[in-house]
Specification:
Blueprint (H helix, E strand, L loop, with lengths): L22 E5 L6 H11 L10 E4 L8 H15 L6 E4 L2 E6 L3 E7 L14 H14 L17 E7 L2 H19 L6 E4 L1 E7 L5 E8 L5 H6 L6 H9 L3 H6 L14 E2 L1 E4 L4 E4 L15 E7 L13 H9 L12 E8 L1 H9 L1 H6 L2 E2 L12 E6 L7 E6 L6 E7 L9 E7 L6 H21 L5 E6 L6 H9 L5 H9 L7 E3 H5 L9 H4 L22 H6 L12 E6 L4 E9 L21 E8 L15 E2 L7 H8 L6 H18 L21 E5 H5 L8 E7 L3 H15 L5 E8 L4 E6 L2 E9 L1 H5 L18 H19 L3 H18 L11 H14 E2 L7 H12 L8 E2 L19 E2 L15 H19 L11 H7 L2 E9 L4 H25 L3 E5 L4 E3 L9 E11 L8 H24 L12 E9 L6 E3 L14 E3 L5 H4 L41 H10 L8 E7 L3 E6 L18 E6 L5 E4 L4 E2 L12
Helix pairs in contact: 12-13, 17-23, 23-24, 23-25, 24-25, 25-26, 28-29
Length: about 1250
């Protein structure tokens, strides 16, 4: 370009044109505004990577060669124009848009513009900018500026199409950005003191190369007094920013994993009724040990912004609240991950009282501006604690992950990390490639930044799962063969992540949803369509969106992934967001909030084993390749599994029992309401098979009760409350076993409960953390009896948290249990397997099984189970949990032929009722089952060996039991007593008749020919006998001696049954009969299993049994087999003759009766020779023990608030000399001289 020179020889600026796009004069906002504007610019502005946030004053400007002279001339112009310079206040508070032919530019400006606000009056900021631009541009030939040449100062936020939805969305975000800053401490307002001189570098990025100072303030602003209070501080803050720092803003190299915008979580404050940022310092160094963590993900669907879909908002709120039908406790962390959240819906959520109460923590506040149309947001309950979060950019704009770190749910250096994603949609080569890159970016970030933490990734992955859809896309040419193979293989890195749904359900199972179950179309599911979260056949919103001519299929888009090698375990998975079924109006259109169903996953941490170890105890076991899948096992097990009605009945029974135990004093017939004298905190928690999810239709429910009162008082209170309030709900007492670890048996309808008890205030206070506390924690410093009861809960929780795939475990457990029943080896009472035996044996196999967890099936586990235990040396090996070393150190007794240990100390051998004969029978059945499975015979019905048992032996020991009394419960208890003593017979045979192999069948038989003729209850047990080969070579005399020994054993066992029966079940020849005899097979006749219930009618007080009259096996059901009283040795285990029986227990000796307490009170009150004020009543308080009260203050009316039942009276004492004149325990009565009286108590 030809230029002229001035007097000094330099080119004249007036002869230069503003035509170069390589340089610019601009105003750069202060650094503290950059994160807010860049949040939108990074997603919408095509020049984001090349320009920092800026307002152009001169652009285009001069050529790069002329830039130094141009800057020098502009400095001179600024200095000469006014003595005080051109510093001025700049305020950007007006969003607007420039509409072009193909798109629109959204910006912030200080004054009127053509974005729909033409009539606005010009602001001081706008006038100052125009005056500055006019002065500087007047030095040049105005060429190169496009359009009408009018200067419109603005800060560009982004570009968008002319489509109303994205255009209005970005405009609303700009308005929200301004609105949020109007009420914040730092509005978009600052004092401009300098201009940035910018030049494009070799990579095309605009860099700040120089600056032009404007001075302290403008004359006009000084006269108006605008901003006088903060002028100096604003100038100091801006001038303090170095040039190098400004150059880095928005222009520096991006981080390895994208652009991060970190932030602290916000919490709803009831004091100011708004959401405010939370300081993370409050949780530093602290760790919360939750029992369970709920992670839910829900795509709420953005289908319209203008107008917003407000009619769906209540449905979405209801769906979110349905994740927890009842509000979670304060100790239950719950995290909610939402996708496709708009600014409008976020404001609706943040203003909803129910959401504020349930989820008072959020990634955003009411002032937040969401960057995209469809955004990811995380909510959390208060128990999760404050968290910090970051936005991880993916390669594709508007796609990324919100990654939150929860230090309270982990530790400061290893926080629980939760990421929520919304990946690119579509099934095409480009979209699949984009999803693969996005997942790799997330995986690389988690591996690099949070390698030591546990991860959870939840969200809408938009990964097609329907094989039919994937194959159809290949057939239609929508995807290439490589993409087809990639999608079929899966884009999720299985080395890093485990899919919670696949862990819990597998590929062809799903949760039970009545809404979908009633939809016949929904039942037609192909491969990859089970558990679909997007289903146009059942979701009315999805049905309106899909193109039906493209043959849409159900897809499981929404998932919750966990770290494969982490400490999290999946406890339950379910979907939510389904419409309610209205049985009253079947014609009514069902509505739901979104086109997706949500997914809720309950997770738990593996417990901390502390000093107990935690190293894997045992070599890895190789799984065999088999050609049987879990469909066959499920088909075989299904007929025995509880149905939904049964599950609902059990849940209702637990709720009813819990409410009864917590019942204080309610209004009853004829009695008015009386306020409580103090609530007793009681926790009732299912344990054993029901808690593990392996119970059958007829299984009992074992429960642990925890409270602060003594065991004696608790069971007294429980029995009284059940008697008083349980009748209306069908709850009744059946038996109370008063042993070292007492057990209360209760029936709710037809469901039997066994209640154990643990007394501990510390356990109640730390209940939610009990499963995760280390074994040596001081909270477990309890008496042995209480700790044994508590361990039933701790062991159950430990197994739930450590078994790799709980659904595989459950299916395998049910298969093995049904096999054990069919094979005659399921009954811990007879020395065989119980439910807890199978649990511990199977858990060991599941944990030691080698291979990819995804490839582990229940069929493979079952196959490995029988292969392993058919070769186990039971006499020497101890079966313990491989991840908890306490069981391995169990000191077994020589008389214990089988050792299967519990988990937490004090360790119990749950198989200590086993005998050498029962172990031999078990080993044989394991070997037979292993051979059957090896040959491909999996049908459980073919495994039944009842008929083989009846035909296998030439001779049997027959134990007849007959009962014809009036109380059927005594008859049933008598059979239980006989069953529990049969192992003693086997021990005696092994000790004194080792030449005999004996096998008992663990069920009662009955003669079919006489069954209809009997009016009383009669049955018998059979013990098969065979020669084990050791008698060969023995002389005739020795064999005769052996036979005599054998008959002596039988006679001694019969005598033991008759003399050692309990006092509550005293053998009485007038109503019962027991006989033990040796019989030949031919004399048995036609027999079958006795399936009759011998009944449990009669008052519960008839069956209060004490420890001295029970063997261990009576205390645990066959279903559980968890021995509570491990310090009680089976009396027949010692190598002594069974004919030697212990001394019968003491029975109450008939004698003089004690006058009732009522007679004593009346005598004291009305006998003129006695002074009522001189007597005290000693009575037993349920919580405080023995208390004393003046006789005159004793309340006799039941309606009186201070009424105390007379049976609690322990003694009467004379105040004057301290002499006890009446004592219930010693039966000492000085008032009446121990004369007989009629009891009225």
């Amino acid at each position: 370009m030809t230029t002229t020179t001035g007097a000094s020889g330099t080119p004249s600026s007036r002869e230069q044109s503003l035509s170069s796009y390589q340089t610019a004069i601009a105003i750069i906002p202060p650094v503290f505004y950059h994160p807010q504007t860049n949040a939108l610019r990074s997603l919408y502005d095509k020049s984001y990577l090349r320009w920092p946030p800026h307002i152009n004053v001169l652009y285009p400007f001069v050529t790069p060669e002329s830039l130094p002279l141009a800057v020098q001339n502009l400095r001179r112009v600024v200095q000469e124009s006014k003595d005080d310079g051109f510093g001025f206040w700049l305020k950007l508070d007006r969003p607007g848009s420039f509409r072009h032919k193909q798109n629109a530019t959204i910006f912030l400006s200080p004054g009127p513009h053509d974005g729909g606000m033409v009539g606005d009056p010009e602001t001081a900021s706008g006038r100052a900018l125009r005056r500055l631009e006019g002065l500087l541009s007047s030095q040049y030939t105005k060429k190169g500026r496009t359009g009408d040449g009018v200067y419109r100062p603005h800060l560009t936020l982004g570009q968008t199409s002319l489509d109303p939805m994205p255009l209005n969305s970005l405009l609303s975000k700009a308005e929200k950005l301004v609105t949020a800053n109007r009420i914040s401490i730092e509005p978009f307002k600052w004092f401009v003191t300098r201009l940035a001189v910018m030049k494009r570098d070799e990579e095309g990025n605009m860099r700040i190369v120089d600056e032009i100072l404007l001075g302290k303030r403008g004359t006009e602003e000084a006269e108006n007094g605008e901003g006088e209070a903060d002028t100096e501080s604003e100038i100091d803050r801006v001038s303090g920013e170095s040039l190098d720092e400004l150059q880095r803003l928005g222009l520096g190299p991006r981080e390895s994993f994208g652009y991060f915008r970190p932030g602290a979580s916000c919490q709803f404050s009831t004091e100011i009724n708004d959401w405010v940022p939370v300081d993370l310092a409050s949780v530093q160094g602290r760790r919360f040990l939750p029992k369970d963590i709920t992670i839910a993900t829900y795509n709420v669907l953005t289908d319209s912004l203008f107008p917003p879909p407000v009619e769906r908002y209540p449905l979405l709120i209801d769906a979110i609240l349905s994740i927890h039908p009842t509000p979670p406790s304060l100790a239950t962390p719950s995290i909610l991950c939402l996708q496709e959240v708009t600014d409008g819906f976020l404001q609706h959520l943040l203003s909803n009282n129910a959401i504020r109460t349930r989820y008072p923590l959020c990634t955003h506040s009411s002032n937040s501006v969401l960057p995209s149309i469809r955004n990811c947001v995380i909510f959390a309950t208060l128990s999760c604690g404050p968290f910090e979060w970051q936005w991880l950019d993916f390669t594709k704009r508007h796609k990324g992950a919100v990654i939150a770190s929860f230090p309270k749910l982990g530790s400061p250096d290893k926080p629980l990390v939760v990421a929520t994603v919304h990946l690119t949609c579509g099934l095409g080569d480009g979209s699949v490639s984009a999803k693969a890159i996005q997942l790799k970016t997330l995986s690389a970030y988690l591996r690099t930044k949070h390698s030591a933490s546990d991860w959870i990734v939840a969200g809408d992955f938009n990964l097609q799962t329907s094989i039919q859809s994937i194959d159809s896309a290949l057939a239609s040419g929508s995807i290439s063969k490589d993409t087809h193979e990639l999608v079929r293989k899966g884009l999720i890195d299985e080395e890093l992540f485990s899919d919670s749904w696949e862990i819990f359900f597998g590929s062809n199972e799903e949760d039970f949803v009545p809404y979908e179950a009633d939809n016949t179309v929904a039942e037609i599911k192909g491969e990859g369509e089970w558990g679909a979260t997007f289903n146009p056949f059942t979701n009315p919103v999805a049905a309106k969106i899909v193109r039906w001519n493209s043959d849409p299929r159900p897809q499981r888009y929404d998932r919750v992934l966990i770290k494969r090698t982490g400490d999290l375990r999946v406890r339950s998975v379910c979907r939510f967001g389904f419409p309610e079924i209205n049985s009253q109006d079947s014609e009514k259109t069902l509505e739901c909030g979104s086109d997706h169903w949500g997914v809720s996953v309950m997770l738990n941490f593996r417990p901390d084993v502390g000093d107990a170890g935690g190293q894997r105890n045992g070599a890895r076991l190789q799984l065999s390749e088999i050609y049987i899948d879990d469909k066959l096992l499920k088909a075989l097990v299904d007929p025995y599994m509880p149905c939904k009605t049964d599950r609902d009945a059990r849940e209702a029974a637990i709720t009813s029992l819990r409410e009864i135990l917590l019942q204080e004093q309610e209004s009853v017939l004829g009695v008015g309401f009386k306020p409580s004298r103090g609530a007793i905190p009681i926790i009732l928690a299912p344990v054993g098979s029901y808690a593990l999810g392996v119970h059958g239709r007829d299984s009992d429910i074992d429960c642990l009760c925890v409270s602060t009162i003594s065991a004696k008082t608790f069971f007294e209170v429980a029995r009284k409350r059940i008697r008083r309030f349980g009748g209306e709900r069908g709850i009744r007492l059946t038996r109370f076993v008063d042993s070292k670890v007492p057990v209360l048996e209760v029936k709710v309808g037809n469901i039997k409960f066994d209640l154990q008890y643990c007394q501990s205030l510390a356990i109640i206070e730390h209940w939610s953390a009990i499963p995760l506390l280390p074994p040596n924690d001081s909270v477990f410093s309890l008496p042995a009896s209480g700790l044994k009861s508590l361990n039933s809960y701790r062991d159950t929780e430990f197994l739930l948290r450590t078994i790799p795939n709980i659904n595989v475990f459950r299916l395998a457990h049910r298969f093995i249990k049904i096999w054990a029943l069919a094979s005659g080896v399921f009954s811990s009472r007879f020395g065989y397997l119980g439910g807890f035996h199978i649990t511990l044996l199977l858990a060991r196999i599941c944990k030691l099984a080698d291979g990819d967890p995804k490839d582990v099936t229940a069929a493979k586990i079952v196959r490995l189970f029988f292969a392993y235990y058919s070769k186990t040396e039971w006499l020497t090996e101890i079966i313990c949990d491989p991840e908890f070393s306490a069981g391995a150190s169990y000191q077994r007794f020589s008389r214990e032929p089988m050792a299967v240990t519990s988990i937490y100390a004090p360790v119990v051998n749950v198989a200590r009722n086993a005998t050498r004969h029962s172990v031999s029978a078990l080993t044989r059945e394991f070997e037979l089952a292993e051979k059957a499975l090896d040959s491909g015979r999996w049908d459980l019905r073919s495994m039944g060996r009842e008929n083989e048992f009846l035909a296998e032996y030439e001779s049997y020991v027959k134990i007849d039991v007959q009962y014809w009394g009036n109380t059927l419960r005594r008859g049933k208890a008598l059979t239980l007593w006989v069953e529990s003593t049969i192992p003693l017979l086997l021990v005696g045979l092994n000790t004194k008749a080792p030449f005999i192999f004996a096998r008992v069948w663990p069920q009662r038989f009955v003669s079919t020919t006489e069954l209809d003729e009997w009016t009383e209850l009669r049955g018998f047990y059979l013990v098969g006998l065979s020669n084990n080969g050791t008698r060969e070579g023995r002389s005739k005399e020795q064999k005769q001696k052996d036979e005599n020994t054998f008959m002596e054993i039988l006679q001694g066992f019969e005598q033991h049954l008759k003399e050692r029966s309990t006092c509550a079940l005293e053998y009485d020849s007038t109503d019962s009969w027991i006989q033990v005899q040796y019989v030949r097979r031919s004399s048995l006749g036609a027999v079958k299993i006795d399936e009759r219930d011998w009944g449990d009618n009669g008052p519960e007080d008839d069956l209060i049994q004490n420890e001295d009259n029970l063997t261990d096996t009576e205390l645990g059901s066959d279903d559980e087999g968890y021995v509570r009283n491990d310090d009680q040795n089976c009396p027949g285990v010692k190598e002594t003759s069974l004919s030697k029986t212990r001394k019968p227990p003491k029975r109450p000796v008939p004698g003089r009766k004690l006058r009732p307490a009522l007679d004593v009170i009346n005598r004291i009150r009305w006998d003129p020779s006695l002074d009522p004020d001189d007597f005290l009543i000693g009575y037993e308080d349920r919580f405080k023990g023995i208390r004393e009260m003046d006789v005159g203050k004793w309340k006799m009316e039941q309606t009186d608030l201070e009424f105390i039942p007379l049976h609690r009276v322990a003694y009467f004492k004379r105040r004057s000399d301290g002499v006890v004149v009446w004592d219930r325990e010693t039966k000492n009565d000085l008032l009446f001289g121990n004369k007989v009286g009629e009891s009225g108590e």
